[in-house]
Amino acid sequence: MQTVVLGTSxxxxxxxIDVARHGARVELxxxxxxxxxxxxxTVDALAAKPEPVYGVSTGFGALATRHIGHDLRTQLQRxxxxxxxxxxxxxxxxxVVRALMFLRLKTVxxxxxxxRPEVAQTMADVLNAGITPVVHEYGSLGCSGDLAPLSHCxxxxxxxxxxxxxDGEVKPAGELLAAAGIEPVELREKEGLALLNGTDGMxxxxxxxxxxxxxxxxxxxVTAALSLEALLGTEKVLEPELHTVRPHPGQGDxxxxxxxxxxGSELTGHYQSGEAPRVQxxxxxxxxxxxxxxxxxxxxxxRLVAERELAASVDNPIVLPSGEVRSNGNFHGAPVAxxxxxxxxxxxxxxSIAERRTDRLLxxxxxxxxxxxLADDAGVDSGLMIAQYTQAALVSEMKRLxxxxxxxxxxxxxxxxxxxxxxxxxxxxxxxxxxxxTRIIAVELYAATRGIELRHGLSPAPxxxxxxxxxxxxxxxxxxxxxxxxxxxAAADAFVRAGxxxxxxxxxxxxxx
Length: 513
Prior knowledge:
Blueprint: E1 3-6, H1 13-22, E2 25-28, H2 30-47, H3 73-84, E3 88-91, H4 94-109, H5 117-128, E4 132-133, E5 136-138, H6 147-157, E6 162-164, E7 170-172, H7 173-179, H8 191-194, H9 200-230, H10 240-244, H11 249-262, H12 283-286, H13 288-310, E8 318-319, E9 325-326, H14 334-362, H15 385-401, H16 423-453, H17 462-473, H18 485-497, H19 500-509
Parallel strand pairs: 1-2
Antiparallel strand pairs: 3-5, 4-6, 6-7, 8-9
Helix pairs in contact: 1-4, 3-6, 4-5, 4-9, 9-11, 9-13, 9-14, 9-16, 11-13, 13-14, 14-15, 14-16, 15-16, 16-18, 17-19
């Protein structure tokens, strides 16, 4: 099994994905252990002084004005975890919780939080044992960190609350720790607060979203090319000189991907033939690189934000190398929240343009010779009529999900925390949007491949043929009489989701950008 070593300099997006999705083990480097010990010595020294220090010897949030004596500090740290573990609603996915835990450990291991090395080691042990705390959908405002989600994780470290074991069964966390030979932690000064105060949930979801969208944007370039072929469109609008005059990098990459897929096609270039020649293809076909490219550029910005956040140590207060413990506002989730919302907007538009191409394929008045709804015997057969309804419903929901969460703010903690990011909410809706986008692209793939196969006597591009062959091998049927459609669409969805569409064409095209 792969091992990810955490040091003081942060981690990589791939490390997050390996731990969250693939169960990679986590180890602390020797420099991380040393940094943890040094920062803890600072906290212990401050804890011994009579002057109040936020998070060490005071209450929290609006209750920070109360000085807490030595005899109550363990209880203080235990209480913040218990009281903040107030999430409600459905359980959050296992991969999200693992990313959340790993990223909190990443910040702890940086040596800026003042957490003891043994607490950090317990966090790694829980991840390595495959124990996943039960975290609920609602409870984070994306400011002061993802408080409730992180609190449920910290609660499990204390041997309290519920968690999912490596076998998938939910049990009391204390039982799972005992079965794995892990001793519950007793939190000391600042440690409870340090385990709760970060943007880790929204950041983890951003990193996984970027990985998923990378596959989906490449897949959308492929399905756009397939639709262009099925509609007998022209590939000339994809030629490089037309995109260098408007030098958005993503646009150029999308156009190059589509052109690579279409190389060698006998279906393209017929747009001016027949009784009613087309001067130009419709926007949904002709402007595919512009729309997908803008989304790719949005992803590039989001990736930059994610990389900066991965290099950060988000906590309040923070232990500086000078020995000072300083309050700050670095826990505010605005940078992450904004790009999560940007991505939801871009994803909605990509889904929208894909649906328009599908609708065009099914309309005999605009499909340039294809049968109505790509049906075998139109009228007796309905073909893909209702597949487009399903696709339209998904697009409509994506438009609702594109409404920015980060534009909202509800004050909390008796107006001490009077402006919040709602970044967790932005991340949650983006995950739903990505699920929908995958299905939308799968429907376009299903329609476009059927359309190409109905163009008898003309051969598709070799890359297109490879995509069709792989899709049919995956159990997705081609043209023919009406059949129970939902299983085919589910299989197409799984095909796209697993990256198999991209994998099918790349041996012909070379790596897509």
